[in-house]
Design goal:
The chain is of the alpha+beta class. The chain is 50% helix and 16% strand. The longest helix has 41 residues. It is elongated and about 125 Å long.
């Protein structure tokens, strides 16, 4: 696309572009919109869901079972069931990704920008995407700049460029001078907002050629890391695959050379072992757990764009948050004032008469407006003046009422040179009131040493508290004084007082920061504001403590990457930073193996949001570019919502780990059972169809509802799961070993008892008893797995969906073992009474063993805590 901005500047006629010129420009430059990244094709999404190791193993099993069905007439049961599991898993994953994207689309459709342009000599309102280079656009306070442009005419124009620069203060713009050169002072940029004044601008560039578009284009070059959960599950699948391959080779060799089985039968046993090794329902349970987390997070104002990020947010070590709007209310507020007669007062104290007079002067010298449309607040004007309007509203006053008492007859607007604004008002007695507000050191005050000295002390106190200070002076003049000489009008002012303003913290942020630290998370503030302001807010909310540091962007850029990495865990506040600084901060933490969440709302935040492990965009104030780059969008722009998402993410991860423990422990036992039985010369104790029923129905149905488990009470008092932490850490490996060993010994004993104790070598009886013990026992001991605390009636009844799923699974297993057609189809037989009694007792043994281990571990942990305390 040609960059119109680089061409020689040619002013558009005052009447604007003609329809013919617009059509030509639209054809040449395209629509004024950002080009989204090409959507991932459906086939690639499917492959992404199919390419994990466990799915590949199942694909191999499908292929082998299909070959046996065709070549050896081995039946299609295995092929159909395993293939169905793979298809269901892919469909669930695709559905959840589509649901997340629909949620985001709903957010994006909340605002469809328009612009007022002058074409063919007429002003018309058009959709922003229809703007072309050369268009003349009219701007007023509250408008969004639709494209990069040069300012041709302006009155007191101020633009908020925070989306590009991170700076919270509006930037004043000047009119283009016909020098042939364009600079930042006379240009406005797409996505920024007009906070004051009016302007006529001529569009230079649109769409992807704008500053906003160029940053959006950088996003495709930033790669996202795989989530920790994906890595852990892939490693687990690799371990299981290794066991399956080694076990398959072993059992194939034993079957062929020891038991003299045919190749077809030996391959069938190999397929059975592959089925036993891979927990077919684990990918589905993981997807359901993540999807459940997506729904719960959406209920808590956090929309997940990437399903896998649900687990990642629970593992974050660092949350790097923007200040404005996330940690603070994004609303300048007057918190203190000073008058010569009252001294420093807070706005929460009763308003004094001097305070009322100061408020009256401020209200008269203010141009901002706050209106309510359909119950929503619509504010127009400078943030400081909006704070004045809100202070008036606290005391049931409004600017229009003050104007009726003292109508404004003249105004000298604020500019950055004199840093003052002056208004003149007509009083009822015919005199005139001159009000001047501005910087303390610019007001021409009467040389009253006492009040000036006291005012200076108050000014310095406000500055130490990181308050923005605004001074107010006034004088009464006769009616016949000319209002054209502003220097004469504003001389010898009486000092009315000072006000101190700040963007206050959200009230819920302080406990949220405390909760983050208790959860082992390091909260960091990154802002475009001044260092003093950032430090004051950070200290108030608890991010910046005495042992931590705050640095500016200039100081940060003096550090090498190595120096930054060495100091990164001591720095809690970064002020006046650039987009590249944010990426450096993220990458420095990641180089230490930490999982990083980054919040942002501006275009300048987008590359860092994508580089972070979890990018979090603001749903209210965030730009579309930041939302597209993020993994999570906050619909309330609230830091406390992030902590709610962290808690939900940890619950999801815990439930996935419980699912791994529930499924994998029995799968290991099945491997050892199959290999052990062949080594003992008994042959395969279970058929592939029976293993599928156990893995898919008996284990799968209850396992589906483990995602409904509420979080553990201590989840937010534990440190985050480290990136390099094994999935078997935190006792999971020990619990898997005990469970696998219990089921291995139990099932081998049950098979031997059923085959040689109850009958004279009848394998089907032993096979039926092993099938029932594995199916029922592994289902029932889910109660011991789903809660780390000792088993109780409340823990057994708090998840009704799981109880219903468990009951359904038990009924299915019993139906297979009791109903003749099913029993015959799965090669089971009728058991004698002693066989049923043995099965009943044996199914409770795994739960008993797991509960004993749980209590032993709890006592061991208590002793460790006592010894550590001593």
């Amino acid at each position: 696309m040609q960059n119109y901005k680089n061409a020689p500047f040619k002013p558009t006629p005052e009447s604007g572009l003609t329809t013919t010129a617009v059509t030509a420009q639209l054809t040449k430059f395209g629509k004024n919109e950002l080009v989204a990244a090409r959507p991932v094709p459906l086939w690639r999404k499917i492959w992404q869901h199919m390419s994990d190791v466990s799915s590949l193993v199942l694909l191999f099993a499908v292929g082998l079972a299909t070959y046996l069905a065709l070549a050896q007439n081995g039946g299609w049961t295995k092929t159909i069931v395993i293939g169905a599991i793979l298809i269901i898993n892919v469909c669930i994953g695709l559905y959840q990704e589509a649901s997340a994207e629909k949620s985001l689309a709903a957010l994006k459709s909340m605002s469809l920008p328009t612009a007022n342009v002058r074409r063919d000599g007429k002003v018309q309102t058009i959709a922003a995407p229809e703007i072309v280079p050369g268009d003349l656009v009219l701007l007023k306070a509250g408008d969004q700049v639709p494209a990069d442009a040069v300012v041709l005419e302006a009155t007191n124009l101020a633009v908020d460029e925070a989306v590009l620069t991170g700076e919270s203060e509006a930037v004043e713009k000047s009119i283009y001078q016909d020098t042939g050169e364009l600079d930042d002072n006379c240009q406005v940029y797409a996505g920024t907002a007009v906070t004051a004044g009016t302007a006529l601008i001529q569009v230079l560039t649109t769409g992807m050629a704008t500053e906003l578009g160029q940053i959006a284009g950088l996003l495709n070059k930033t790669k996202q890391r795989a989530t920790p959960l994906q890595g852990r599950l892939n490693r687990l699948s690799s371990w299981l695959t290794t066991f399956a391959v080694l076990g398959g080779i072993t059992i194939f060799a034993l079957s062929v050379w020891v038991q003299n089985q045919g190749l077809a039968d030996s391959l069938m046993i190999g397929v059975s072992l592959a089925v036993a090794a891979v927990p077919e329902t684990l990918p589905i349970i993981v997807t359901i757990s993540l999807s459940h987390g997506v729904r719960r997070m959406a209920d808590r104002n956090a929309i997940m764009r990437r399903v896998s990020a649900v687990e990642t947010i629970g593992s974050v070590d660092v949350i790097a948050s923007d200040k404005t709007g996330t940690l603070t209310q994004n609303r300048m507020t007057i918190t203190k004032y000073w008058t010569p007669t009252t001294g420093i007062m807070t706005t929460e104290q009763p308003l004094t008469s001097a305070g009322q007079e100061l408020m009256r002067y401020l209200g008269l010298a203010t141009n901002a407006e706050i209106n309510r449309v359909d119950g929503e607040e619509q504010a127009v004007g400078d943030a400081t003046e909006l704070a004045v309007i809100r202070w008036l509203a606290q005391h049931d006053l409004d600017r229009s009422g003050l104007e009726e008492q003292a109508p404004r007859i003249a105004e000298d607007p604020f500019d950055s040179t004199k840093k003052m604004m002056t208004t003149v008002h007509e009083l009822e007695d015919g005199q005139r009131l001159v009000i001047v507000k501005g910087a303390w050191d610019r007001l021409p005050l009467k040389p009253d040493q006492a009040s000036l000295a006291a005012g200076q002390v108050a000014h310095d106190e406000f500055g130490k508290a990181a308050l923005r200070v605004l001074a107010v002076g006034y004088r009464i003049i006769p009616e016949d004084v000319q209002t054209t000489d502003w220097d004469e009008l504003t001389a010898d002012l009486q000092l009315a007082g000072l006000i101190g303003l700040i963007d206050p913290p959200r009230p819920e942020v302080i406990p949220a920061i405390r909760a983050a630290k208790q959860a082992g998370i390091f909260p960091v503030m990154i802002t475009g504001d001044h260092l003093v302001t950032a430090k004051a807010i950070a200290e108030e909310i608890g991010i910046l403590t005495p042992e931590l540091q705050a640095i500016s962007g200039d100081d940060l850029r003096q550090l090498s990457d190595e120096e930054l990495t060495a100091r990164i865990d001591q720095i809690a506040v970064y002020a006046r930073v650039s987009p590249s600084d944010k990426i450096r901060i993220v990458q420095a933490w990641q180089s230490l193996g930490k999982t990083v969440a980054m919040t942002g709302d501006g275009v300048n935040d987008a590359p860092a949001l994508k580089a972070a492990d979890v990018g979090i965009a603001m749903g209210i104030t965030g730009t579309e570019v930041s939302k597209e780059a993020a993994d999570m969008v906050l619909t309330d722009d609230n830091f406390a919502t992030i902590m709610a998402a962290v808690k939900e993410g940890r619950t999801v991860y815990q439930n996935i780990i419980k699912a791994v423990e529930f499924l994998v422990g029995v799968n290991f036992a099945q491997i050892f059972l199959m290999v052990g039985a062949v080594l003992f010369g008994w042959g395969a104790p279970l058929l592939a169809e029976q293993l599928l029923i156990i893995n898919v129905l008996a284990d799968g149905i209850p396992g589906f509802f483990i995602s409904q488990e509420p979080g553990e009470p201590q989840a937010m008092q534990q440190p985050p799961v480290a990136n390099d932490e094994s999935i078997l850490a935190r006792g999971l490996g020990q619990r898997l070993f005990i469970r696998a060993a219990t089921f291995t010994v139990l099932t081998l004993g049950i098979y031997a008892f059923g085959r040689f104790g109850l009958t004279n070598g009848q394998a089907p009886v032993g096979m039926t008893m092993v099938f029932l013990v594995l199916a029922l026992g592994s289902m029932i001991d889910i109660y011991a797995i789903k809660d780390r605390r000792p088993l109780s009636w409340s823990s057994m009844t708090r998840n009704p969906m799981l109880n219903r799923g468990l009951l359904l699974g038990i009924l299915v297993v019993l139906a297979i073992a009791v109903i003749p057609p099913f029993r015959s189809f799965f090669s089971l037989v009728t058991l004698p009474a002693l066989g049923w009694l043995t099965v009943l007792v044996a199914t409770l043994i795994p739960t008993f063993v797991l509960e004993l281990n749980k209590r032993w571990q709890a006592r061991r942990q208590s002793r460790l805590v006592v010894n550590t305390a001593e």
